[in-house]
Amino acid sequence: MPKQITVAVTGQPNCGKSTMFNAITGAAARVGNYPGITVDRLEGHYSLSGYDIKLIDLPGTYSLTSYSPEEVVAREVIIDERPDSVINMVDASALERSLYLAIQLMEIGVPIVVGLNMMDEVRRKGVRIDSARLSTLLGVPVVECTARIGAGRHELMEAVAKLAEKPDHAWRPIAISYGHDLDPVLLEMTQKIEEAHFMTDRYPAKWIAIKYLEADMKLIGQGRSVGELGRQLEAMVKRLGEHTEKTLKTYPEAILADYRYGFINSLLKHGVITREEDLRFDISDKLDRVVTHRFLGPVILLGVLWIMFDVTFKLGAYPQGWIEKGFSFLGSSAARIIPDGLVQSLVIKGIIDGVGAVLSFTPLILIMFAMLIFLEDLGYMARTAYMLDRIFRVFGLHGASVMSFIMSGGIPGGCAVPGVLCTRTLKSPKERLATIFTAPFMVCGAKTTAYLMLTAAFFPGSAAAAMLVIVLAAWILALSVARILRWTVIRGPATPFVMELPPYRLPTARGIAIHTWERLRQFVTKAATVILGISVIMWTLMTFPQLPQDQVDAFNTVREAAKVEIDTRGASEESLPSDLRTDLIHKRLREIDARQSETALKYSLAGRIGIGLEPVSRLAGFPWQVNIALLGAFAAKEVFVSSIATAYAMETVDGDDSSRLSERLAADPAYTTPAIASLFLFILFYAPCMVTLVTIARESDWKWALFVLFGSISFAFVLSVLVYQIGSALSVFMVAI
Amino acid sequence: MILPMRKMQVNQKGRIKAVNCNGELGRRIRDMGLVPGTDFMVVGRAPLYDPVAIRLKGFTMTLRNNEADFIAVDTDNQ
What pTM was estimated for this model as a whole? Predict the structure, then answer.
């Protein structure tokens, strides 16, 4: 029986932690969720002779405060799950900063192994790092690694096993001096904490004291609910703060950081590192002179966004087409096997269409994520945020929001599902929520089909200009709504922008493959069931209650009559050849079918809702037919065209051939110019489709998803009513003069 | 001369004199190693002049001008 060892893997962002984790565990990692963050909880195993080592991948963080949920998760895993040790991957090319996290881990006292990564880069730059000396000075094992090629993974595991062999497993917090102002207070606090057993069942005493000095709101909040000592400690920190502010013009938390860095510096100066000048440009800085150049930078960025968009949707269209063809084949096969009736309708329109809806997104997600992860690992996403921050900040967003808007349809023809998934690269929570809310406003491919039909109806000849106006409206209103959200629902100061511009590093194909596959798998497994459920609900709404038998009979009678009439007319008029006669019969029958569908739709729940809502929707200028179509389009926006066709008793139309429907709509006097403008706006903003909605819920939570749903419906309705009412009043006024 | 980081030119070097903020922003700045005594150099500015990119301790990072305002820099003897 091999001995079980649990080890958590941590490190700062861009240190190669994930690469090393993948190199150690292979693709066999088990994926779970950390609560409240979008970072996956990966677990994997490594077998060493006599040991079964279980690895847990922690979120990458620069330190262990409680300002971000990632940091809280990382430190809670260490404290609550008490792994045997922690591997701290460290970017050797930025050693001083990287060790800052290591010091904080040592303050907790958990045994650590330092993985000195990027040693290849360091050697190439001619820097020499004495890892044995670093190990002696720090008092922890240090292993040189190059995660890209998996070098050092076995040695890391051996170091972990060796630590586990030690007879004594007590956690020993490192003793660093934080200077003569802090040390006495820290000592006093630690003693008080120990005497009162104040939260010491969970945290080491000195660490609690340090967190109080750091003004760690999470821990202080816990302390308040535990006992009186919490208040006392807060008072001590306050007194100390007043003192340091007066004498040193600084804060205890700043002094802590200064001394930690001072400690690291003194280590490094003791012969650990021999380097050339610190501020020397590396290749990345030279590249950035071009890539983020004042003029070239934006041009390159536009090119990258365009390529990303074009490749995703052009390349994705092929497999998407195959999947759609496959499902329509499945549908027609089901139609042959299952007899006509409710079961057939449920299987085809509810289940097969629902599953098809989920799967048809997978090629887009696959391609989009592969490219997004490539750009992120390459270091380009950080540059995107850097270049666009000044613009997007005005709207309370993040520079990296741009990718989400573009993918969602900032260029018409996108899709909000990959668009919303894109927000994973956003580390600022408020900015991310605002992006998730507004990205579905963009002109996705499905909305485009609706607009093509509508512009053909109402703006024949100037469809391109109309599309341009629609896209501009989408951008302007998405950004405005984001601004409003950041002033109201998610107000508060911008998340600090401070971030690393990591050196450009070519990502490994393996890393991209693993992460892309994981995204895709989660989308399919986690979204599929919910989407299938909604799809069946939508089918029920559109199908039940069914037309009563007497009405069905009435339609059948009309059909028979039509056949007889044409037959007899054909017989009496010799000039009507028999093939023309059959054509005529088919045409009449189709018309009757369409009328029956219309009647059935009106009779169904969806129809009743649509008709029932007409008094309300009239405020925005929509007849009931539009209401039904909008309801149906929640399942998938491209359904808008076919549902509106059914509602107008037109034969079922394909997206490609909706010209007759366009004519029919253009002829309808209900569509005045204000009504058209109102409808165009409403389609643009009214609600994300069900797949997007479920994706939003997965990326945030259901509360936010429902807020997005009802928030955008209300916003779109108010906007449409305003446009319609003001527009109508104006046109009456114009006629009057 | 002591001046806020915002006022610095591209390619200008400096040494951090003080970081005058606490809370989350102060923490993020210090996490990155921007503590008093640190030498750095402004290596670039975004196309709209803001944010600013600096190089220090072997890596490159960026922050907004209104964040750089809190950082006092000594530009003598650099």
Answer: 0.85
